[in-house]
Amino acid sequence: xxxxxxxxxxxxxxxxxxxxxxxxxxxxxxxxxxxxxxxxxxxxxxxxxxxxxxxxxxxxxxxxxxxxxxxxxxxxxxxxxxxxxxxxxxxxxxxxxxxxxxxxxxxxxxxxxxxxxxxxxxxxxxxxxxxxxxxxxxxxxxxxxxxxxxxxxxxxxxxxxxxxxxxxxxxxxxxxxxxxxxxxxxxxxxxxxxxxxxxxxxxxxxxxxxxxxxxxxxxxxxxxxxxxxxxxxxxx
Length: 236
What we know:
By secondary structure, the chain is mostly helical. The chain has helices spanning 10-32, 39-58, 73-103, 113-120, 127-160, 164-180, 183-207, 213-232. The longest helix has 34 residues, at 127-160. The termini are far apart.
């Protein structure tokens, strides 16, 4: 009879989760000193590569983090409505929180225009910068989904279990970490808005049975619209 390898303990999975997340955070801080404008995408690219090596070492397939094969016609037919729902949810959550913050007169919810100008000030009317950022966000958006939704939620569900509260924590912890990753140029407002959007995407990720494709496409699409608005200097 062939013996199967024992499953890793929850403590060991937690340690591995902490190491990968910690490496992402430290990489981000280290790169901030040299390439502040691009530290997010570069640190994400490095940590995603390490995550793929980790998955291979653990014997997990890419479908474990959401890159499920779309084999049937039903999978392809569902992709469009799932993508559209994700776009609507991202837009509605972001706009709703921004509107609510403004309606309540919360000072910390005011956009940090100086930080945005410092990072994206050369984007308006600059085709070269616009195309560069489009290329970056069509990598970064899906990469963020793979790391923060695919890997983090999957790993936390193995660590915490499948109870209702464990599922809530598995969604909220990555969402908070995602928000923290946007503080450096969006401040507390960025933490709240992007963290809330990330929580909504985490819910959709589980509703979509851990299919990352519609979320990856929606994330990149929403970001493309935002950068197009900056390039075209739309007042929205």
